[in-house]
UniProtKB/TrEMBL annotation, chain A:
InterPro entries reported in the protein's UniProt record: AAA+_ATPase (IPR003593), ABC_transporter-like_ATP-bd (IPR003439), P-loop_NTPase (IPR027417)
Gene3D superfamilies hit by this protein: P-loop containing nucleotide triphosphate hydrolases
Protein's name in the database: Iron complex transport system ATP-binding protein
Role this protein plays: Part of the ABC transporter complex HmuTUV involved in hemin import. Responsible for energy coupling to the transport system.
Natural source organism: Paludibacterium purpuratum
CDD domains: ABC_Iron-Siderophores_B12_Hemin
Keywords annotated in UniProt: ATP-binding, Cell membrane, Membrane, Nucleotide-binding, Translocase, Transport
GO molecular function annotations of the record: ATP binding; ATP hydrolysis activity
Organism superkingdom: Bacteria
ABC transporter domain boundaries: 2-236
Automatic annotation (TrEMBL), chain B:
Compartments, as annotated in UniProt: Cell membrane
Statement: the UniProt record of this protein carries the keyword Transmembrane: yes
UniProt entry keywords in alphabetical sequence: Cell membrane, Membrane, Signal, Transmembrane, Transmembrane helix, Transport
Protein name: Iron complex transport system permease protein
Assigned GO CC terms: plasma membrane
GO MF terms, alphabetically ordered: transmembrane transporter activity
Listed Gene3D superfamilies: ABC transporter involved in vitamin B12 uptake, BtuC
Record field: transmembrane: 57-73, 85-103, 109-128, 140-161, 181-199, 229-254, 297-315
Chief location of this protein within or outside the cell: membrane
Organism in which the protein naturally occurs: Paludibacterium purpuratum
Stated family: Belongs to the binding-protein-dependent transport system permease family. FecCD subfamily.
Recorded topology in the membrane: Multi-pass membrane protein
CDD domains: TM_ABC_iron-siderophores_like (cd06550)
Length: 260, 325
């Protein structure tokens, strides 16, 4: 449903993205990882149709997103930015309802979106009384409502660091929820995350980026190689494997930073 | 919400009758005003219908327009300290009015030119900010345009004959004293329409408060939609300035009071703010006529006296919020 090929973006003489390709399918959770400044959020802004690449092509559900108006784009994809804006004086339910502002062909209940994002208990609370993590969930419910209201057969959810404001328990639970959501509602989800172990555990596919380039793309077992991650992040890693070899985790070894 | 609207409409009715009571004496009880409506003498009836009511209608709708524009501008720029005057409209309208007076044009022309000047100033503001509707650039350009027009206005005032000086003071300080039925009729027709135009943008205004990117992601065009909101607000403010002069701070205060009562949701705010704005303008006009009776203060003096400390209080509140964020 999403095909991005050979994307290049330059700004002020700097190459932000260089010949980057990515595909994402309906019902799958695709996670983008990479060190700071790798171009993950920039890539997401291109995929969302907010910015245009200097070269390369994006096909979103068979359409060129840059030829679509904001209204048509909103039927196909929803986005939650890294630090989505909010204003005091709105209730959480009012924020979620904003996801249903555009009549896109299908009736959906904002309560369902809040339930799916497990934030329905916050509905009556004012935004200024919520924690950063709670607000993030409410924004996720808003974006989800936007897709639930859409009559498009293929829909994409783009998330920029949805776990940034969450503790590791909640972050893990959210990722599991997102994967389940992708499968049950046949929504393609592409998200930027920083936690390698979270990505390894929940992603259907991973794009590993460095300096605006795609360093690796594939299933977690194909991408998450210790030597590759050490080279990309410039840090020595210890790889921990559970006894049944079902779980793997990478731990940076402090004091051995090779980045400098 | 229904109860709130009812209470507010009731208070507007009381304010209207209180204003009507001024026909007899300043500070009269509102019930006196009510009695005037019920059984007036012929003189009272003339005073009421020819002087009082047009003035009440004009001041209420002028306040409503300023508040409606203020609420929309604050949402558009995501800045609770924003005020319609910030984007140059008031300065442009006042300068045009002064120019019209300089050339000895009749009052109708002065109003028309002030309206055109207000919209022209907005155009200039957009031109200086290079057609950008980005928050900071547009507000900075508005401040620059206001400064330019302000200094030109001062220059012009020094060359005006004595007779016109009094009239220009009216533009600078705001007044509803020249109200008549043609003006009131214009406001009766135009003000509800402009308030409605801004109200029907409530979805966009809500999303713009989350940021232009979010509005775009939700399927709205923040550039065109934002420009539309600014244009409607400019038309509202220009209409007020062209007939009543510069009545400051109502566009700032009314949306804030409304926000305290009904929250930030634009569907409620764009109804509550005009009602409160109208009520504030009536109250300010009543004070302007009563405080130094039989002399009358310009209404802008009253709104500025109340508005400036209100602005400082808001500034303090927003400073606190950003420290705790």
């Amino acid at each position: 449903m999403l095909e991005a090929s050979h994307l290049t973006l330059r700004h002020d003489g700097l190459t932000l993205l260089d010949d980057l390709s990515l595909t994402a399918a309906c019902g799958e959770l695709t996670l983008i990882i990479g060190p700071n400044g790798a171009g993950k959020s920039t890539l997401l802004s291109l995929l969302s149709g907010l910015r245009m690449p200097a070269s390369g092509q994006i096909r979103l559900c068979g359409h060129d997103p840059y030829r679509l108006g904001a209204r048509e784009l909103a039927r196909l994809r929803a986005v939650v930015e890294q630090a989505p804006g909010w204003q005091p004086g709105f209730s959480a339910a009012e924020l979620v309802m904003m996801g249903g502002y555009l009549p896109a062909g299908r009736q959906a209940d904002w309560r369902d979106a809040m339930r799916l994002m497990r934030c329905d208990a916050l509905a009556e609370r004012r935004l200024e009384t919520l924690s950063g993590g709670e607000r993030q969930r409410v924004h996720l419910a808003r974006a989800l409502l936007q897709l639930l209201c859409s009559d498009a057969t293929q829909r994409l959810l783009l998330l920029d660091e949805p776990t940034a404001a969450l503790d590791f328990g909640l972050a893990d639970a959210l990722m599991a929820q997102l994967r389940e959501l992708a499968q049950t509602h046949r929504i393609g989800i592409v998200a930027v995350v920083h936690d390698l172990n979270l990505a390894g555990r929940h992603a259907d596919r991973i794009l590993l980026m460095k300096n605006g380039c795609g360093a690796a793309f594939g299933t977690p077992s194909e991408v998450m190689r210790k030597e590759r991650l050490e080279a990309i992040y410039g840090v020595r890693l210890a790889e921990l494997i559970s006894q049944d070899e079902q779980l793997r985790a990478f731990v940076p070894l402090s004091g051995t930073d090779e980045r400098d | 919400m229904r109860l709130f609207t009812l209470v507010l409409l009731l208070s507007v009715a009381i304010a209207l009758t209180a204003g009507a009571a001024l026909v007899l004496a300043p500070g009269s009880h509102p019930s006196v005003g009510l009695a005037l409506f019920v059984s007036p003498t012929e003189v009272e009836r003339q005073l009421l219908w020819q002087l009082r009511l047009p003035r009440q209608v004009l001041s209420f709708f002028a306040g409503a327009l300023l508040a409606s524009a203020g609420g929309a501008i604050q949402a558009r720029f995501r800045n609770s300290l924003a005020e319609p005057g910030l984007i140059g409209i008031s300065g442009g309208a006042a300068l045009s009015a002064a120019l019209a007076l300089q050339f000895g044009l009749p009052v109708t022309w002065v109003s028309l030119l002030a309206f055109a000047g207000g919209l022209g100033a907005l155009g200039l503001t957009c031109l200086i900010s290079r057609q950008s509707v980005d928050n900071d650039r547009l507000i900075l350009a508005g401040i620059a345009v206001n400064a330019i027009f302000g200094s030109l206005l001062t220059l012009l005032i020094t060359t005006l004959p004595d007779g016109s000086l009094r009239t220009i003071t009216f533009w600078l300080m705001g007044s509803f004293a020249n109200a008549d039925w043609p003006q009131a009729r214009l406001f009766l027709l135009a003000a509800p329409w402009l308030v409605w135009l801004l109200f029907r943008e409530w979805r966009l205004l809500n999303l713009l408060q989350l940021g232009p990117e979010t509005a775009f992601h939700q399927g709205f065009d923040p550039r065109r939609g934002g420009a539309r909101v600014v244009l409607f607000a400019a038309m509202a403010v220009a209409l007020v300035v062209s007939h009543c002069g510069m009545v400051g701070f109502i566009g700032l205060m009314a949306p804030h009071l409304a926000r305290q009562l009904v929250g930030s949701h634009a569907r409620r705010l764009q109804i509550a703010a005009p009602l409160i704005g109208g009520w504030l303008a009536l109250l300010a006009d009543w004070l302007a006529q009563s405080l130094l009776y039989p002399a009358e203060l310009p209404v802008g003096v009253i709104t500025s006296l109340a508005g400036a400390p209100f602005f400082l209080w808001l500034l303090r509140q927003s400073g606190r919020r950003s420290r705790h964020a």
